Amino acid sequence: MTREQAKKRIAALSGELEEHNYRYYVLAEPSVSDFEFDKMMEELILLEKKYPEFLSPQSPSLRVGGTVTREFKTVKHKYPMLSLSNSYSEDDVRDFDERVRKSLSEKPEYVCELKYDGFAIGLTYAQGELLRAVTRGDGEKGDDVTANVKTIRSIPLRLKGRGYPDEFEIRGEIYMPRKVFEAINREREEIGDALLANPRNAAAGTMKQQDSAEVARRRLDCFLYFLLGEDLPYDEHVKNMLKSKEWGFRINPHMKICRSLEEVMKYLVYWDKARHELDYDTDGVVIKVNSYKQQQQLGFTAKSPRWAIAYKFKAAQAVTLLESISYQVGRTGAITPVANLKPVQLAGTTVKRASLHNADIIEKLDVRIGDTVFVEKGGEIIPKIVGVDLKKRPSDSRKSHYISKCPECGATLVRRDDEAQHFCPNDTGCAPQIVGKMEHFTHRRAMNIESLGSETILQFFEAGLLKNAADIYDLKKNDILKLERFKEKSAQNVMDGIEASRSAPFERVLFALGIRHVGETTAKKLAWHFREIDALMIANEMQLLDVGDIGEVIAKSVVDHFSSKDNLEMVRRLKKHGLNFKLSDEVLKGRTDKLAGMTFVVSGVFANFSRDGIKAEIEKNGGKSTGSVSKKTSYLLAGDEAGPEKLRKAESLGVKVIGEEEFRKLIR
Ligand code: IVH
Predict the structure, then answer these.
(1) Which of 83, 286, 304, 309 best tests ligand 1's pocket when mutated (most atoms within 8 Å of CB)?
(2) pTM exceeds 0.85 for this model
């Protein structure tokens, strides 16, 4: 392929991929299979790597992320990013309508929109291309999060159609769909990480990530709701919104023109209930005056426009009786207090249980068995108790005391200084922890033993056949046949599943061990870095911190794990059973020794590699990458916006600084 042909092909692929993106993520009408899409994307990425001069800042390949922003640049908003005044009752809305009418000579037309509960963003487009994405910040200045925003697939990088101003801003709300939020929390639960509180916090936390590849994995989405600029096509909000839909923006379908206050009220009442069916959180309705001329007449107060108001939904609340408090023990030993309630209807579902989170919350609410409690379903998926009706408290009620012993095994609970939750430390003798660990071990993404599901594990555990994961490989078909429900075929099925799992690669075995805070991705990184379990088992915290993206919490957790005799014994037994505890030769094949003995510090942003990618490349070629420049550093590998502190240190210690091109020469 000539350079000219490559340029054309890159342009053609980019256009096609963006069109498919638009159809899939904005219109929800996919036009090609995922497979075809991935193939085109792969081809584009390869071509852009080969011809970096044709990589455009609007390339759809940026959707997969990989850019690392060390520090977000502060940018001044061209138009201040104001918020809205809030109203909490229908009366407040009536007052708003009255104020509006009094100030206007003509009757207003309102637009009602849902108020999405996420993270406000301002997108600037110039000549039809996304130039910049900035957070609200303090309203005057915000953070430039363009690289992260480019991974949100429904946000157009290049506009469609025509008639857009040369330069304009469009504002909207970035949010995390509930389905994504739930999936992330399921995963966090599996690896024993603290759960994300609600989709709003999750979206905000994601936007502040430095690695845009991580943002891409979080599958955020966005609704746009406000157009700003000098030459907008119409002088009405709704018309401009519909026009911007033609340019490729995702506009919420539930926006509605209301010609009277009554219609506004109907919208509020309808969405107060219907919002629970949506796949995103909303916390109210925004009511705007449609005409720009009228908006201008109404003007602004110091903080917010007089032409709009936010009506906040009351969180759905119910009143019921707290019958008892029970305590659940998770795989990691974490204790979760649960309120058992007299069943009550709340936002369309029957609620029987509510989360009480931890001992501090119980103390703060002073919630007691027999109390009449207020239960709310807010942004969180699980309902929570928000208060007690003290007037209804029985006179003989007694203060709740948090348990001090594990409800499952009787061990004395512990609470580490920095954690809100209590833990049962008896990880090798407490039933839900043992069974939970085995469930994790056999999980599809770990050893993938489908024939050993939760129920079977529990049955085997209760029958005394399994006490830990290593016992799985000692199971005998004859022992299984003695159990209820098992016949020749089903017992053989279990044995076959176990046998097949022996070929699981090292990184999956490592994930299966269930080291706290070590999820799939971390397991992969550790496997690649240390190559075999023996090296990992003797690594100290410093050595672990040298692995890209491993922080103190994970490093400490790994060291703790392998300082336990039981865990060492587990590895010894699993090794004896032939599980893979080192990277296979096949995986190691692509490796070289070109960088053997060299230590790199990586800093900044690179054109052809993500930061993880370049570190993986160093390791693949026998080198090491560490976090800070010292006398031992061979090279500081510096990309754009490399840390000035690192550059200074390298200079003072005489460490050579190289760029991406020189690095490529080293490994060529
Ligand atoms: S319009 C001049 N429309 O709620 C203000 N805002 O406190 C224009 N929000 O800052 C904002 N959904 O972050 C508007 N449909 C919607 C919205 C919305 C959510 C957020 C936004 C805004 C805040 C108001």
Answers:
(1) 286
(2) no
